[in-house]
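In response to the reviewer comment on reproducibility (Comment 2.3), we provide here a single inverse folding case reported in full, input and output, so that an independent group could reproduce the run without further information from us. The structure tokens appear first.
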């Protein structure tokens, strides 16, 4: 019974986090990078073309077109969205979360926290999932 209750709370928090993140979606990159190597483009194709998204990420990382935070966050998204590899997604999500740049980009951090909460829940770490949801809710409130 408690497990179902926690599951509903987590799903509600994830929906709130995703809605808040969508409402505050940042503007597209304007630094002149090739459009196929932008975070937005890779995120967009992460569902339907995950292999291509990873190939673009590898090239972007090699050419230093994305920051380490962006690279790890996108690897988290591709593993989550395209491959349903939730342990790998959580691994990269934690790397992005640990990056100091994450605190400088609250909108992206909020987005990342929602995925980390869902991945933790899927992997059976309910306490971590609740922690990520709580942090995300505090961040959204600010």
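Designed residues, in position order:
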């Amino acid at each position: 019974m408690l497990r179902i209750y926690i599951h509903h709370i987590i799903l509600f928090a994830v929906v709130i986090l995703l809605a808040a993140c969508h409402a505050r979606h940042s503007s597209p990159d304007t630094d002149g990078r090739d459009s196929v190597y932008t975070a937005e483009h890779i995120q967009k194709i992460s569902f339907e073309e995950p292999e291509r998204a990873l190939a673009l990420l590898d090239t972007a990382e090699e050419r230093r077109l994305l920051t380490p935070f962006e690279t790890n966050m996108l690897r988290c998204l591709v593993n989550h969205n395209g491959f349903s590899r939730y342990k790998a997604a959580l691994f990269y999500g934690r790397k992005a979360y640990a990056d100091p740049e994450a605190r400088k980009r609250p909108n992206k951090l909020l987005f990342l926290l929602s995925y980390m909460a869902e991945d933790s829940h899927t992997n059976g770490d309910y306490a971590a999932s609740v922690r990520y949801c709580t942090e995300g809710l505090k961040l959204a409130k600010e």
